[in-house]
Each structure stands twice: as structure tokens, then as C-alpha cells.
Amino acid sequence: METEFYRIKRLPPYVFAEVNKMKAEARAAGDDIIDLGMGNPDLTPPQHVIDKMVETVQNPRVHRYSMSKGIPGLRKAVSGYYQRRFNVGLDPENEIVVTLGSKEGLANLAQAITAPGDVILVPNPSYPIHHFGFIIAGATIRHIPLGPGHDFMETVTQAVKHSVPKPLALVLNFPANPTAEVVDLAFYKEVVAFARQHDIYVLSDLAYSEIYFDDNPPPSILEVPGAKDVAIEFTSMSKTYSMAGWRIGFAAGNQKLISALTRVKSYLDYGAFTPIQVAATAALNGPQDYIDEVREIYKSRRDVLVSGLKNAGWEIPSPKATMFAWAPIPEEWRELGTMAFTKSLLTHAKVAVAPGVGFGEYGEGYVRIAIVENEHRIRQAVRNIKKFMANSETYLQEAKEQVETP
After folding, report:
1. pLDDT recorded at residue 149
2. How far apart are the first and last CA of the chain?
3. Which of 3, 181, 235, 251 would be 206's cystine partner, CB 3.0–4.6 Å?
4. In 3-state terms, what secondary structure has residue 192?
5. Taking 70 as the threshold, does the pLDDT of residue 280 lie above it?
6. Which pLDDT tens digit goes with each residue over 53-103?
7. pLDDT tens digits, one per residue of 367-403
8. What class has domain 6-44+290-404?
């Protein structure tokens, strides 16, 4: 039986799959691949968080079903975090829900609020779940170009003016993955005013709120007066506390959206394992010096990468936040394209990066480099790339021949 499933046929082949396959084959052949492709933190969570997890898991009562909405103590801890960090008051009962990471929260919110044909405005390039979560739910995506040469709010205004039906929601992600772009509170004030005027929801992904490298901490959209009338915000423990594999995050803000997400989740899961939620509570309520230490580690790695690549002949912008560098590919490779450059870099430099086109069509011409290896490995990657750059002409010709071969 040959069946084309509705949701599956709306998903294009995963761009990263081809690179991941090459990476796996190279490793199987014994190559030492330095993986700077996936944003997978290599650091360990704070010791007191691990200790709390170990302590809690010994309790025989915690191995039953948990709470889909999140245990009360964790929701209260999230409220405390928002009060400390953003001076935003949140009702733990009605304005916060715990999620299995921000990715699950965004995808389930899409299922909760989207009808087939609804229009969703999504930055491009952006993290895949920001658009594919809504595509799976049946929505129509209108891309908003993000980056140099594009006035984001001007494009949003035009999109709303010319979309039928009127857009249901606008997705935001700052500090941005993959571009590392940051915005200030004035930007969010403009967004909130626009959303309230046009009766559009704003879905903000703030996963990188604590990974920043200057004296201006990234703001929350919920800091804007009236934001909770239109906005919900997602974040997670993954990057802030290096708890990516624990799959724990939360959504906060607009009560109607929180209620919709909570209701859908109640049909789909029983919440994260209780010891994980208890440990996450300990992370939010406990000493926060770990965050400063992690921030300094990523900043140092960023500087090693950016300065090293500059010396190698590949100058890239220094990111102000996130654990990523958004790097324009060398000029001589631009005609051939991002995928060809990414594959050649993997083959000859043994360095894996994420092709920018995997984050949307406006990501063509860029690669995302994740600083998720220690400084020794990053220096090794830089040395390998320097050799690659020195022989770029040869590798470029080889790549051209591969493209031309039928």
C-alpha cells in the first residue's frame, strides 16, 4: 500500500540529514570529526542540581506519573526567576506551564491553536521548529526575512497587510538561533503595540536569555506593559544550566495560550519525570554563579574561534549572544553554495558545521558554527580550517566537478 500522509508530505527532506550521514560515515571510517554542527552543550549541569536529582530518585514515591502542567514547586520557581531577572510578576497557576523543553512546548502550542490554513509569520532563517511545528499543524507559513538589508518590522507590516486570512501569530526568537542576532526592549515595545493593534499573538522563544557576552542582558517580551495580553514566551534549562538531555523547559505569559497549551499537553503526556522537575527547581532556586561561569566559557570559546578563523583568512562576525557564530561562507564558494562548502569542509577539514540553508532559504550563503567543544578542540578545528583555506581552490574545483557529474 502506497500512502501519502498529509502531514508527512508537507515536510521536505531534512537538510541536515545529508551532512549527518556523511559525519557518521566518516567517524565509522575512523576519522576524528570535530562536531561544531549541533547546538548540543558539552558542559555538565551544576553539581547541586545533579545531587538533587540523585537524592530525589531514591524516593520510591517519585516513580509514578508526574504532573503534565508541572509540579507546583517548579512553576513557583519559574515565577521567581522571572521576578528576579526581568522584574515580571507571573501567576504560577495560570500563567506558567512546564514543558519537555521549549521545542515540545512550541510544537504542542501549534497543535493547540492552529487550524489548517491559518497564517503564521516566522523569521527566516530560524530554528526549524518555529516553522515546521506550524506546518505539521496545517498552517500556512509566511516568512519574514531576517538579517542585514531587511527591516523586520516593515516586512511584518507588509505581511499583515497582504495576508488573507489575517495572520494568527508572529514567532520571535532573540537572541536568535541561528543568526545570534539580539534586540532591545524598544524592539519588543514596538512588536507588542503592533500585535495589540492587529490582534495577533506573539510567540517568543527566549532559550538563549542567559548566554550573552556584553553588559546588556537580553530582555523578555513580557517586560513590556500589556505584553501578556498577546504574548507567550518559551525558554528552557537546556542552555542556561547545560541540561539539554533532561528535556525540561517552560512557557509563560498569556493565560489563554497557556490554558490551550496545558489542555493539549494533558492529553499527550504526564509531564517530565518528577526528579527532573525537582532538580530543575533546585537549579532555579539555588546559587546562580554557575550561569556566570558558563557565560565566560562560551565567551572565551567565541573569541578563540573568531580570532583563529580571522588569522586563517575567514573573517566572521563575533556573536553578541548564543552559543553560535553565523558565518558567511568564503566568497569564492558562494556561487557553488552552502551545502557544497559544508560537505567539503567536513571531508577535508574534518569539521562539521550546520549549513545555513537548513534554517530557511535566507540562510543560504551562511553556516552556523556551534561553540560546543572545548578550546583545545576549537583550536584544532581552526588549524584544520586554515589548511583547508590554503587549499580552497583545489577543493572548490573538486566540488564543482562533483556537482557537474551526472
Report:
1. 82
2. 32
3. 235
4. helix
5. yes
6. 999 999 999 999 999 999 999 999 999 999 999 999 999 999 999 999 888
7. 999 999 999 999 999 999 999 999 988 988 888 888 7
8. alpha beta
Which residues are within 8 A (CB) of 26 and not within 5 positions of it... i.e. 6 or more apart?
33, 346, 347, 350
What's the CATH fold of domain 63-285? Answer: Aspartate Aminotransferase; domain 2 (3.40.640)
Q: What are phi and psi for residue 338, nearest 5 degrees? A: -65, -45
Q: What is the pLDDT of residues 338-358, one digit of tens each?
A: 999 999 999 999 999 999 999
The domain ranges of the chain are 6-44+290-404, 63-285
Coil vs helix vs strand at 251: strand
CB-based contacts of 291: which residues, under 8 Å, 6+ apart? 210, 240, 241
Give the integer Cα–Cα distance in Å for 104 and 125. 20
Grid coordinates given for 249 = 523547559
Question: Please, is 233 exposed, middle or buried when counting C-beta atoms within 10 Å of its C-beta (0-12, 13-18, 19+)?
Answer: buried
Type and span of the H or E element at 6: helix 6-9
Residues 6+ apart with CB under 8 A from 345: 351, 352, 353, 367, 385, 388
Q: Are 251 and 109 in contact (CB under 8 A)?
A: yes
Listed residue (327, 338, 348) closest to 22, CA to CA: 348
Helix H segments across 216-322?
237-240, 255-268, 274-285, 289-311
Residue 19 pLDDT > 90, yes or no? Answer: no
Strands 201-205 and 169-173: parallel
Instruction: Locate the DSSP E strands across 86-230.
Output: 96-99, 119-124, 140-145, 169-173, 201-205
Nearest to 357 by CA among 374, 375, 381, 333: 333
**Gap between the Cα atoms of 127 and 320, Å rounded:** 18
Q: Which SS3 state, helix, strand or coil, does residue 225 take?
A: coil
User: How far is it, in rounded angstroms, from Cα 370 to Cα 364?
Assistant: 17
pLDDT score recorded for residue 406 = 53
Can you tell me the distance from the alpha carbon of 199 to that of 46, in angstroms, rounded to the nearest whole number?
42
Fill in the amino acid letter for 227.
Answer: A
The answer to whether 36 and 360 are in contact (CB under 8 A) is: no
Task: Give the pLDDT mean for 317-342.
Answer: 95
What lies within 8 Å, CB to CB, of 91 at 6+ separation is 79, 255
pLDDT at 283: 98
